[in-house]
Amino acid sequence: MLRCMWISSVHNAFTASWSMGRKLLRKNKHTRTQEATCLATGYYPHGARVRWVRGERHEPVPEHMLLGGEELPNGDGTFQTRLTLRHLGEEEYKCQVDHSSQETPMMRTLEKPRTRMFLLSPALSVVLIIVMVVVAKRIYERCHHQDETDLPQETRL
User: Fold this and answer.
1) Of residues 28 and 20, which shows the higher confidence score?
2) Are 2 and 17 in contact (CB under 8 A)?
3) Can you tell me which residues the record assigns to a coiled coil (predicted)?
C-alpha cells in the first residue's frame, strides 16, 4: 500500500485511491521563500520515485530547487520518501509518485493559497470617511476664503 501526503498550511484534505493527506505550503524562516513538501510513505517494496514536475508539459523541476528525496525505512518495514520543492515560482507544480504497486503514477497538483482581498473593518472605514470629510472641508474653506480675499474692497461685507 502506498500513501501519499502533502504538507501545507492550507490544510485541505483530499481523497484518492490511497490514504487521505493534507497540503502544506509554507515559508522558510531563513530564506523567506515558499516551500512545498511531497511525502510518499507506507509503501513496500522500496523503490518509489518521487519527483516534482512543472507546467503543462510536466517538465522536471531542476535539482537546485529540490531538497531531500532520500528513501528511508519506517518502523513497520515500509518505506518513505520526502521531497521538498524550494523557491516556488508562478508556474503550476505537481508531485508525481511512481511505485511498482501502482499501475500508473500518482500525481497531485500543488494548490497555492488564494490571495485575499484587503478588507477594511467597519470602524476603520468610518474613521477614514471622517478624515476625508475633514480634509475636504478644510480644502473648501481655504478655497472659499481665498475667493473672498481676491474680491475688491468695495464688494466685501
Assistant:
1) 28
2) no
3) none
CATH number at residue 43: 2.60.40.10
Q: How far is CA 61 from the centre of its chain?
A: 18
Domain encompassing residue 101: 3-109
Joined grid coordinates for residue 137: 472641508
Cα separation, 40 vs 131, whole angstroms: 56
Using CA of residue 65, residue 83, residue 56, residue 105, what is the dihedral sign?
positive
What does the pLDDT look like over 59-107, one tens digit per residue? 999 999 999 999 999 999 999 999 998 877 788 899 999 999 889 999 8
The answer to whether the beta carbons of residues 82 and 38 sit under 8 Å apart is yes
Q: What is the edge-to-edge ordering of all strands in the sheet holding 59-60?
A: 59-60, 49-54, 93-98, 106-109
Rg of the chain (C-alpha set): 29
CA distances from 39 to 20, 43, 97, 98 (A): 12, 11, 9, 12
pLDDT at 22 over 50: no
Cβ neighbors of 150 (< 8 A, separation 6 or more) are: none
Q: Is residue 116 in some structural domain? A: no
Is the same domain home to 145 and 104? no
